[in-house]
Design a protein that fits this description.
This protein is mainly beta and about 70 residues long. It is built from 1 helix and 5 strands; from the N terminus they run H-E-E-E-E-E. It starts with a helix and ends in an 8-residue tail after the last strand.
């Protein structure tokens, strides 16, 4: 996961993430990674429309955002 975060931070690629909040609520987020620490990372969250700090241990799944083709 760390390598994915580092590459996304360098490239600006958006990621899809399933995250477990402090209140034990599972959330779906689309993010752009800004900074990476040892146990946390900071990212712009398109769901909340602000920069948020996430705990790496609470990330359930994270992958590059798949482009979705629009139907004509």
């Amino acid at each position: 996961m760390r390598t994915l975060l580092l590459n996304a931070a360098k490239s600006g690629e958006r990621l899809e993430m399933i995250y477990l909040s402090e209140k034990n609520i599972i959330t779906y987020r689309i993010i752009t990674v800004r900074r990476i620490g040892e146990e946390h990372f900071q990212a712009y969250c398109y769901t909340k429309r602000q920069i948020r700090t996430f705990k790496m241990k609470n990330v359930l799944s994270i992958v590059p955002l798949r482009s979705r083709k629009r139907a004509n």
